[in-house]
């Protein structure tokens, strides 16, 4: 009899990791085995896992998050755009600019965002506007990465305390009712 439909099965001897290389125009930022990679593509956020179908796409300014094999540590990089190439056992991120999230200076990122916003208001040529928009997108991506890193550290701190309390993120009103989480203020 003729079989119809698609049958998928995964071999158990196939690795549950994928090689990942993150390279900018100036340096190689990461190379190693990962269990997942999440990037900001021009069409939306993409999750890449071992045995992913081959793919090539452009990337916009945003985060690249990877989960290292072995210890499961999550690393975050901020890129200013680039190209993603995916093969079944290899992910390559070729970034225009890239920096590790922990290395971002928050004050400098806020300054860059303010400068890009000023440029958008004063520029007139199409190329100047596009350049200012790219700078703004990269600065916003850096600030988002800092915020994500801050939230991760707060969750880790709360779990290390062992009592499960989240008093670092929540407050109580005088009447004893819980109030919404405090928001970290961003500069303009």
Describe the structure.
The protein has 188 residues and is α+β, with helices and mostly antiparallel strands. Helix content is 28%, strand content 34%. It is built from two helices and seven strands; from the N terminus they run E-E-E-E-E-E-E-H-H. It has helices at residues 106-122, 126-161; strands at residues 18-24, 28-41, 44-48, 55-68, 74-87, 90-95, 98-100. Strands 1-2-4-5-6 form a five-stranded mixed barrel. Helix 1 (106-122) runs antiparallel to helix 2. The longest helix is centred in the last third of the chain and has 36 residues, at 126-161. It is flat. The protein starts with 17 loop residues before the first strand and ends in a 27-residue tail after the last helix. Residues 1-11, 166-174 and 178-188 have low confidence and may be disordered.
List keywords for this structure.
alpha+beta, flat, 188 residues, disordered N terminus, 5-stranded mixed barrel, 7 strands
What is the secondary structure topology, with strand pairs?
Layout: E1 18-24, E2 28-41, E3 44-48, E4 55-68, E5 74-87, E6 90-95, E7 98-100, H1 106-122, H2 126-161
Parallel strand pairs: 1-6
Antiparallel strand pairs: 1-2, 2-3, 2-4, 4-5, 5-6, 5-7
Helix pairs in contact: 1-2
């Amino acid at each position: 009899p003729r079989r119809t439909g698609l049958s998928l099965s995964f071999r158990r001897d196939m690795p549950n990791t994928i090689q990942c290389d993150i390279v900018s125009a100036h340096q190689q930022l990461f190379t190693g085995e990962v269990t997942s990679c999440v990037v900001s593509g021009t069409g939306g956020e993409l999750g890449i896992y071992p045995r992913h179908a081959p793919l090539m796409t452009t990337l916009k300014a945003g985060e690249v998050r990877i989960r290292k094999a072995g210890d499961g540590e999550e690393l975050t990089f901020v890129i200013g755009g680039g190209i993603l190439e995916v093969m079944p056992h290899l992910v390559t991120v070729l970034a225009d600019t890239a920096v590790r999230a922990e290395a971002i200076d928050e004050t400098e990122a806020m300054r860059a965002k303010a400068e890009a916003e000023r440029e958008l208001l004063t520029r007139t040529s199409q190329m100047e506007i596009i350049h200012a928009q790219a700078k703004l997108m990269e600065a916003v991506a850096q600030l988002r990465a800092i915020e994500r890193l801050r939230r991760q550290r707060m969750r880790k701190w709360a779990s290390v305390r062992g009592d499960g309390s989240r008093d670092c993120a929540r407050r109580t009103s005088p009447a004893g009712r819980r109030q919404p989480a405090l928001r970290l203020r961003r500069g303009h």
